[in-house]
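Hi R.,

Here's the chain you asked about this morning:
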Amino acid sequence: MSKTNLFDLDGKIAFVSGASRGIGEAIAKLLAQQGAHVIVSSRKLEGCQAVADAIIAEGGKSTAIACHIGEMEQIQSVFAQIREQFGRLDILVNNAATNPQFCNVLDTDLSAFQKTVDVNIRGYYFMSIEGGKLMKESGGGSIINVASINGVTPGEFQGIYSVTKAAVISMTKVFAKECAQFGIRCNALLPGLTDTKFASALTKNDSILKIALQRIPLKRVADPSEMAGAVLYLASEASSYTTGISLNVDGGFLS
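And here is the predicted structure, written out as tokens:
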């Protein structure tokens, strides 16, 4: 029996935002292991370069490009670079996100609200538009939006973050429906509680963590690497008839 090539990404160009650490780093490394040339991106080049260097050291192909997806000019610039350097894009993983405020919804700060919307909604939306245009030119591709279980069930004291993640789930369906004719699929990953710096306000607070674990049937926090396999499925031919879905990887939280 021969091995399946369903998860083979040889020759594919993949872009992962927020890839300097956490879930994004795990995704970038796995896509590279499967043969993709991975463009590692986040706000600061140094962190991206470290991940790209690690991928190359393991025999993979990677390029580091800085991009703050909350800045429209930077989105336009990064896609101009991708077009010039690679001429195509096959996989886009929108993973960079922000959650600057942890408070009761009535205490929401306007600047925190605006920042969260600019990155988590506007950023994903226009990254998908620019990525989609490139994919359309070469006959298709796969867009994966990292949303959150908070988009289905709001997290306490995470009001605007939860609202933006609900918007990402809706956005995923919009792009899935309107871009299918171009061979572009769009799906969302909904991570549960994951051991990252981003989630440290929850995972490093013992009393909050204890309550959270009571609601997770698997009774533990996820490792970032446990999110990467779901993204590989959505990025590869294994999911060729899958579009518009939200895939929960949450230890059973939403079940």
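One quick note: The first helix runs from residue 22 to 33.

Cheers,
M.
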